[in-house]
Amino acid sequence: MATTGEPAAVPSTGTPAPATTEDATATTGSGRLGPPPWLALVFLLPALLFLGAYMLYPILFSIYRSLWDALGTQFVGVQNYVELFSNPSTFIALRNNVIWVVVAPIVVTIAGLIFAVLTERIRWATAFKVVVFMPMAISFLASGVIFRLVYEQDPERGLANAVITTVQDTFAPSAAYPDARPRPDAPLAEAEGGGFEVEGEVAPGDTVLIPLVGVQSDELPDDAETAVAAEGADGTVTGTVWLDFTRGGGGEEGAIDGSEEGLPGLEVQAVSGGEVAATTLTAPDGTFAFEDLGDGSYTLRLAPANFTEPYNGVTWLGPTLITPAIIGAYLWVWAGFAMVLIAAGLAGIPRDALEAARVDGATEWQVFRRVTVPLLSPVLMVVFVTLMIYVLKIFDLVFIIAPGSVQRDANVLAVEMWRVSFGGGNDQGLGSALAVFLLLLVVPAMIFQIRRFRRENS
Whole-model pTM? Predict the structure, then answer.
């Protein structure tokens, strides 16, 4: 029993009393749990040094260098920027950059969306994705070299024109003798509108010889035979069109020699009063005949269609189509990137929403337009803005694909910056001003993209 004036003993429960805030503060030495903030800076220091050396320093130095002259010895202030916005080459480059920003991201995003939807509907989706994405593994330099060959004007070398000319020749065959011509002393003259006319007029019963040269022997049609002189007939105009050239030399000009070949398939016209009265084709031995012409005099004409130049396709690398052609190459490279990102977004769409729309009677097009695309809009926006940032800095494809003669027509800001600084201009002050201007164009798109990411993650 405790004596009076002593506190009573408290029974022990085996549980220690909770520590107070003051005790925790005394234990850690501060009111913050975990490692001190300076330790995080130690781990971030290598990355900060890297960013400073490769990003911050070049940006600051470019701004500084843009305020000096070409040699960097005289301070000129904003004179480089004044010259920048008064130079016609800059406006051409800026115009082309606007075309790139408006067209390329939209086209690539739409193509990626189509490819991503197709991959959900076909059995060989994996192989399809590999084929479409494969160009991303090729450098822009190599892609530019590839498409420089694809866009070659000569159909024998350029794939694009080879396809176009094949289709063209299928529906409208080219002339068989585009290089054929008469000898200087031959009785033939150029006709109005093309082709050649026989000098003088003929009447039924006459026979005409029409010699031509300028045709390679190995380019003659397979059905060409040895030329023979046409036999005259009453009421009929006859003649022979042949290659007036003897292999190995010899032979008589204007006369059919034994080894010379006829020119089959030539269109010969009988013209009277400026109108074509009759038309015929030469036989394999070069002979032709007009029957039932009627009395009167006629002018024989070799139709212009015999000598038209063959269709050589589209001038992809000309000043008119050079920018669309390069955008086509850009589409080939980046469509796989857009497809992969959009396909990932498609995989995250709740299937119940799609099935509910189908149960309500929506067609596949309505499901795609009113359900799939709205649900994909965040992903589509990310792809679009990312492509826009890359498009503003496009350099490799334009520099490699565009020939020197149309480099000015295909010019963009990045190429103009390189040309002014290193490509002969040697004015690094103006080039730095172009670099700063290009940075100012890219920064808003980057800020927009970063703010989107933060809103989505918050």
Answer: 0.74
